[in-house]
């Protein structure tokens, strides 16, 4: 059974989202996703300053097996990406919730209401 | 709209053993097979450094016998079974259609004068048997073909494979136990071939299905690590071994897939299926390895731009041994190892260089 912390939000496309105290979002891929992907060997992450639309493919995660897109959960501006994860892609397999991928400042009026909670995500992947 | 009817996935005799070992199962050519048991990279390293085992029971063993078998196979296969002088000796060959395309690639072992074991791929097994039966019937050759779905097959591969397998399989501890490289022996109800698909030493053991789980357990106890299809793919890619359906198929002739070495044209009187097409096939494509110099991962069917024109990757992945991405590529005739090329990866042109295959053999990087 995959691990899915209750304090995070999720998308059906297997991103996790942590809403920080300042309103910014920290985003990664779920434990379920890393397990399905297998050994992660390459990450292509968006640079700070890039403006993304909700649902836009903005990062790529490649395992030995396949490449998968990672989507912006809401519209906004990228404010950081995780260089440590780029340097050690296997950290996503080791702990998918510690190995965050990028941070995003939601655009004014961006709607977070469509994100799933842990129970909703568990139902989505069941 | 109607839903396509799909047959339920087939399971090998080792299905329960895979689940017990924590396998992640996937559909492969209609079979439910393990893709990994956790980390495919660790499984890959186990085969390069120690010993790993693969369930290859989805592949099919065929027994051909009868006075006409040698002549029949000399007409059926692009490689020449007449090269097999010593009992047990193995040969890798393509089986071609009339247009020189590859119906399948296979291993044939000559066990005695007129007795052969052939092992074919899972996804092509039914069409292979149909093709062979049709050719036997059409020629009237004295050949009996028996498909051996009663057998399971376990490949044990790696530098310590023979030593660990000998601890687990009593038959291997006899005078005739371990066959010579690229040869096979029958040991009681076992068929043991010193062959594989990893670039390492090892054996492939065909065993009655009822005995397969016990043999798997004994190999586990001897320290052999279960390995899935994921590791099998990266191992064969590093070893420069083609994958049917990906690197070649019925539309591709062996000369365009780096397999000229498996086509034997020396006996001018040997009229095998596809020969005429191969003899008129000029300007064969170069089939080379690629090593990615930029960051990223090469996959199958990416466009390659070279000095001589355009080509295409046929297989690609991340090489755990080299810690770089590698691929096979079909490139314009005359392309040489050591050239710089550009591969189109998601809209970007990434730098790669061509190399002679294989990338890795017997645990050592060759590039």
UniProtKB/TrEMBL annotation, chain A:
Please give the cofactor(s) recorded in the UniProt entry for this protein: (R)-lipoate
Lipoyl-binding domain segment(s): 24-105
Q: Name one Pfam family in it.
A: GCV_H
Q: Which residues carry this modification: N6-lipoyllysine?
A: 65
Matching entries from Gene3D superfamilies are given as: 2.40.50.100
Does the entry feature the keyword Repressor, yes or no?
Answer: no
Q: What's the record's note on cofactor binding?
A: Binds 1 lipoyl cofactor covalently.
Biological process (GO), any one: glycine decarboxylation via glycine cleavage system
Keywords annotated in UniProt: Lipoyl
One GO CC term, this protein: cytosol
Record-annotated membrane-spanning stretches: none
Is Hydrolase tagged as a keyword? Answer: no
Entries under InterPro entries matching the protein: 2-oxoA_DH_lipoyl-BS, Biotin_lipoyl, GCV_H, GCV_H/Fam206, GCV_H_sub, Single_hybrid_motif
Subunit structure comment from the entry: The glycine cleavage system is composed of four proteins: P, T, L and H.
* Family of the protein in this entry: Belongs to the GcvH family.
Q: What does this protein do?
A: The glycine cleavage system catalyzes the degradation of glycine. The H protein shuttles the methylamine group of glycine from the P protein to the T protein.
This protein's name = Glycine cleavage system H protein
Gene source species: Pseudothauera lacus
Tell me the lineage of the source organism: Bacteria, Pseudomonadati, Pseudomonadota, Betaproteobacteria, Rhodocyclales
TrEMBL record, chain B:
The reaction(s) annotated as catalysed by this protein in its Swiss-Prot or TrEMBL entry are: N(6)-[(R)-S(8)-aminomethyldihydrolipoyl]-L-lysyl-[protein] + (6S)-5,6,7,8-tetrahydrofolate = N(6)-[(R)-dihydrolipoyl]-L-lysyl-[protein] + (6R)-5,10-methylene-5,6,7,8-tetrahydrofolate + NH4(+)
**The keyword Cytoplasm is assigned to this record:** no
Coiled-coil zones: none
According to its UniProt record, the EC number is: 2.1.2.10
UniProt keyword annotations, A-Z? Aminotransferase, Methyltransferase, Transferase
Which EC class is this protein assigned?
transferase
For molecular function, the Gene Ontology terms on record are:
aminomethyltransferase activity; methyltransferase activity; transaminase activity
Identify the residues that bind substrate.
204
Q: Which domain of life is it from?
A: Bacteria
Q: Which Pfam families match?
A: GCV_T (PF01571), GCV_T_C (PF08669)
One GO cellular component term = glycine cleavage complex
InterPro entries the UniProt entry points to: GcvT, GcvT/YgfZ/DmdA, GcvT/YgfZ_C, GcvT_bac, GcvT_C, GCVT_N, TrmE/GcvT-like
Which intervals hold domain Aminomethyltransferase C-terminal?
287-360
Occurrences of domain GCVT N-terminal (ranges): 14-265
Keyword Ubl conjugation: yes or no? Answer: no
Biological function: The glycine cleavage system catalyzes the degradation of glycine.
Q: Which family does it belong to?
A: Belongs to the GcvT family.
Subunit-level organization: The glycine cleavage system is composed of four proteins: P, T, L and H.
List the NCBIfam families: gcvT, PRK00389.1
Quote the protein name from its UniProt record: Aminomethyltransferase
Question: Native species of this protein?
Answer: Pseudothauera lacus
């Amino acid at each position: 059974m995959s691990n899915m912390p209750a304090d995070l939000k999720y998308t059906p496309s297997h991103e996790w989202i942590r809403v920080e105290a300042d309103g910014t979002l920290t985003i990664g891929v779920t434990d379920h996703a890393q397990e399905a992907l297998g050994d992660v060997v390459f990450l292509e992450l968006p640079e700070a300053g890039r403006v993304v639309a909700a649902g836009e493919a903005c990062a790529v995660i490649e395992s030995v097996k396949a490449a998968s897109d990672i989507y912006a959960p809401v519209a906004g501006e990228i404010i950081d990406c995780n260089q440590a994860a780029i340097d050690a892609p296997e950290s996503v397999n080791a702990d998918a919730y510690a190995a965050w991928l990028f941070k995003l400042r939601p655009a004014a009026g961006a709607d977070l209401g469509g994100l799933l909670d842990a129970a909703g995500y568990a139902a989505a992947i069941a | 709209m109607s839903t396509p009817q799909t047959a339920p996935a087939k399971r090998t005799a080792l299905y329960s053993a895979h689940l017990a070992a924590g396998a992640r199962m996937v559909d492969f050519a209609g079979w439910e097979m393990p893709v990994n048991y956790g980390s495919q990279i660790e499984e890959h390293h186990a085969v390069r450094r120690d010993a790993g085992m693969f369930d290859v029971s989805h592949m099919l063993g065929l027994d051909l016998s009868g006075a006409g078998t040698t002549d029949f196979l000399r007409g059926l296969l692009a490689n020449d079974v007449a090269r097999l002088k010593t009992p047990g000796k193995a040969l890798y060959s393509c089986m071609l259609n009339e247009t020189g395309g590859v119906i399948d690639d296979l291993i044939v072992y000559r066990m005695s004068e007129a007795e052969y074991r052939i092992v074919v791929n899972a996804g092509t097994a039914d069409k292979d048997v149909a093709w062979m039966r049709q050719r036997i019937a059409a020629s009237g050759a004295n050949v009996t073909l028996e498909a051996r779905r009663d057998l399971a097959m376990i490949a044990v591969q790696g530098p310590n494979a023979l030593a660990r397998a000998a601890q687990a399989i009593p038959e291997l501890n006899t005078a005739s136990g371990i066959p010579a490289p690229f040869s096979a022996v029958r040991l009681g109800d076992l068929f043991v071939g010193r062959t594989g698909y990893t670039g390492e030493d090892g054996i492939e053991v065909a065993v009655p299905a009822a005995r397969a789980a016990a043999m798997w357990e004994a190999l586990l106890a001897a320290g052999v690590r279960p390995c899935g299809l994921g590791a099998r793919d990266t191992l064969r890619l590093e070893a420069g071994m083609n994958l049917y359906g990906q690197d070649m198929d019925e539309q591709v002739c062996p000369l365009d897939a780096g397999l000229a070495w498996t086509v034997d044209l020396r006996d001018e009187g040997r009229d095998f299926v596809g020969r005429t097409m191969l003899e008129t096939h000029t300007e064969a494509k170069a089939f080379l390895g690629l090593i990615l110099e930029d960051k990223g991962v090469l996959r199958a069917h990416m466009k390659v731009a070279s000095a001589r024109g355009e080509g295409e990757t046929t297989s690609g992945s991340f090489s755990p041994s080299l810690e770089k991405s590698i691929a096979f590529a079909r490139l314009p005739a005359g392309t040489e190892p050591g050239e710089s090329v550009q591969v189109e990866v998601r809209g970007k042109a990434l730098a790669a260089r061509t190399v002679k295959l294989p990338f890795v053999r017997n645990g050592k990087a060759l590039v």
